[in-house]
Amino acid sequence: MKKFSINAEHVNKSIRLTQDIIDTCGPRLAGSDACKESAKIIHAELGKYCDTVHFHRFHFHPRAFFGHLELVPILYILSTFLLLFNVFYAAWIGFILLVFVFAIQFVFYKRFLDPLYTKAEGINVIGAIEPVDEVKQQIIISGHHDSARIFRLLAFNGQLYVVTISCAVITGVMAAAALTFIVAVHIMSGRVPGFAEILHYLVPIGAVFYIPLFFFLSSEVTEGAGDNLISSCMLVTLAEIFSRLKKSSKLRLNHTRLRFISFDAEESGVRGSKIYTRTYKKELQRIPTYNLNVDSIFDVNQIKFLTWDINGTVRLSKKMAKECVEVANNEGYNARLFRLILGMGGTDAAEMARIGVHATSLVAMRTDFFQKKVVYHTPEDTPKNLDRKAVKAVLKIVSSYIFKKEREVDEKKRPPITLKNLVKLLFWRFASKKATTYGGGIWIRKR
Questions:
Q1: How confident is the model at residue 437, as a pLDDT?
Q2: Which residue range forms the structural domain that includes residue 209?
């Protein structure tokens, strides 16, 4: 297949559309009118190039995902007071509940607190370009158009952010573990271990790391240019590219359906992709499906493909990630595999992987913890801080990956003509004429 070239105009188009949406809609908190308006603009742009495009509307609870930031510090302070008054059983329950809420809500991205919050409407945008001939596989290129609330501590100092969050987690888990031991000893022996007195001094110190959680989220919302509007705008550019190539006999896709999905509510615990995969699960599983998700495009020198998602709890397709690394390397970019770990959050690829879709996420940002200044989830996430080279890299890598998968389908041929294969072919043709059905491994012949 002839090689296709990404040029400066493709990059300019993606960045220009990002700027236009931000100028029109501003920051786009999931569930807000601004976010819905951005979805409508993306829908209109995809509609120019896709064979079909539609909205996928859903309801979710926007504030629920970060609800643990309101509940966890309250539980810690309340449980600490109970501990100081030697009410060990109640304090133990409080710390256990603290760990449970944090793990379920943030670590595993479950919807434990959702019923406590108000509902809102989210909008996923889905476009598709059909192949010229029979559909044998589909590739989903995805991003998200909602933006996040500003993380105050992260915007102030990235290193202080990591220290505070890490110490809060460690303190909470250790307090819960220590009290579990104290309660177990008391149940079995009727006495309180001597070291329990030390907790009266150590646990209150941990409150220093929990009080900032009350002020963790700002009411202000980022412009979200790099995380992740640019990715949704690149979907439009890619749709235009492949729409035009469909008219070319040399570069058209014969057997690969392309889907371009701009998810909503990714910053609310990947609610948009979660509901999408549940709604379209059977369709996504009907034929081989590959999801190349694009998220957080900030630095061309930091291209990574994820093998684990959602704080390291969801396995993505390592095979697909390796293929993408190979494609990136062939395009001249230094890419590598990467695993998200606890505290790094998650991407929309995780929900695809949960239902068996081959999925990975392409990210282009620093992932080392101790950065003093970051752009992600801060007021600095603006179009002026977009990396043009990274945008070009993503467009090249994604388009090359699509061509690679199409080439693989085209190159799948019939088995070689050998005596063994001829015997098999004749046998199955004879058997199919004599049989009406096949059950439990036994052919039932016509009478």
A1: 35
A2: 67-109+154-215
Cα 387 to the center of its chain, rounded Å:
21
Q: Sign of torsion, CA 142 295 277 67?
A: negative
Residue 422 pLDDT more than 70?
Answer: no
In a domain, 2, yes or no: no
Residue 1 lies in a domain: no
Beta-bridge partner residues of 437: 444
In Å, how far are 102, 125, 414 from 411, measured between CA atoms?
A: 49, 32, 10
Structure confidence by residue, pLDDT tens digits, 193-247:
988 999 999 999 999 999 999 999 999 999 999 999 999 999 999 999 999 999 8
What integer pLDDT is reported at residue 417 of this predicted model? 64
Number of compact structural domains in the chain: 3
Q: Is the pLDDT of residue 374 over 90?
A: no
The full length of the chain comes to: 447
Is the peptide bond preceding residue 301 cis, with omega within 30 degrees of 0? no
Over residues 262-275, the pLDDT tens digits come to 999 999 999 999 99
User: Is 204 inside a domain boundary?
Assistant: yes
| Residue 291 CA, distance from chain mean position | 11
* Joined tokens for residue 106: 């943030």
**pLDDT(413) > 60:** no
Q: Do 140 and 286 belong together in one domain?
A: yes
In SS3 terms, the chain reads as CCCCCCCHHHHHHHHHHHHHHHHHHCCCECCCHHHHHHHHHHHHHHHCCCCEEEEEEEEECCCCHHHHHHHHHHHHHHHHHHHHCCCHHHHHHHHHHHHHHHHHHHHCCCCCCHHHCCCEEEEEEEEEECCCCCCCEEEEEEEECCECEEEHHHHHCHHHHHHHHHHHHHHHHHHHHHHHHHHHHHHHHCCCCCCHHHHHHHHHHHHHHHHHHHHCEEEEECCCHHHHHHHHHHHHHHHHHHHHHCCCCCCCCCCEEEEEEEECCHHHCCHHHHHHHHHCHHHHHHCCEEEEEEEEECCHHHEEEEEEECCCCEECCHHHHHHHHHHHHHCCCCCEEEECCCCCCCCCHHHHHHCCCEEEEEEECCCCCCCCCCCCCCCCCCHHHCCHHHHHHHHHHHHHHHHHHHHHHHCCCCCCCCHHHHHHHHHHHHHHHHEEEEECCEEEECC
68/17 Cα distance (integer angstroms)? 35
